[in-house]
Design brief:
The chain contains eight helices and five strands. The chain has about 200 residues and is of the alpha/beta class. It has two domains: about 130 residues, Carbonic anhydrase (Beta-carbonic Anhydrase, Chain A), CATH 3.40.1050; about 35 residues, no CATH class. A five-stranded mixed β-sheet has the order 2-1-3-4-5, sandwiched between helices. The mean pLDDT is about 95. InterPro entries: Carbonic_anhydrase, Carbonic_anhydrase_sf.
């Protein structure tokens, strides 16, 4: 049985037994928060439990490294949709220790892609077309720096409302312990004080 066959067989039982009922909620996040985190398999259940986030509490966005690589890409669009259309009023960027994006070099992915049939001509054509393949596939040096970069990109976005708190955290994938890097409430309070002076 293939993986797809096992998924479909399980799903048939899941629906027949109405196991979905315990997950029913609305599309609006109860805790009014959108969380950007890594796709690391260790965080799949650990992160929600460690943050006391249950089904229906948050909009959860996952990608490799919790990276926002472009201010007008799909990650930032998802954050803005969560805020404007779904009622989120806080953003939490949660990176993690031992992330696979830490120290990742493009050469590793490009070598493996060629082993799996992607031709060097295709890679050269992408680079010739103006795609920065090296930059696109390169990770970061420190998870803390990456979280701070993502938080700053969100906070500086021209379409982000000024009253949205943007927090930065790092989670330990072994214990679930959260370390706070950026408290978004402090930034909001600073902005309020500065606006009152004007």
């Amino acid at each position: 049985m293939t993986l797809l066959d096992s998924v479909l067989a399980h799903n048939k039982q899941f629906v027949l037994e109405k196991q979905y009922e315990k997950f029913q909620t609305t599309k609006f996040p109860n805790k009014k928060v959108v969380i950007l985190t890594c796709m690391d398999t260790r965080l799949l259940e650990l992160l929600p439990f460690a943050m006391n986030v249950k089904n229906g509490d948050a909009k959860l966005i996952r990608n490799a490294g919790a990276v926002i690589s472009h201010p007008f890409g799909s990650i930032m669009r998802s954050i803005l949709v969560a805020i404007y259309e779904l009622g989120a009023d806080e953003v939490m960027v949660v990176g993690h220790h031992g992330c696979g994006m830490t120290g990742l070099q493009a050469s590793s992915i490009l070598e493996k892609s060629q082993e799996r049939g992607v031709s060097l001509e295709t890679i050269d054509m992408l680079e010739f077309s103006g795609v920065d393949v090296q930059g696109f596939l390169t990770g970061f040096e420190k998870v803390e720096d990456n979280v701070e970069n993502s938080v700053h990109m969100i906070k500086r976005h021209p379409l982000l409302p000024k009253d949205v708190a943007v927090h930065g955290l790092v989670i330990c994938p072994e214990t679930g312990k959260l370390d706070l890097l950026i408290n978004g409430y402090e930034d909001l309070n600073t902005s309020i004080v500065e606006n009152q002076k004007v």
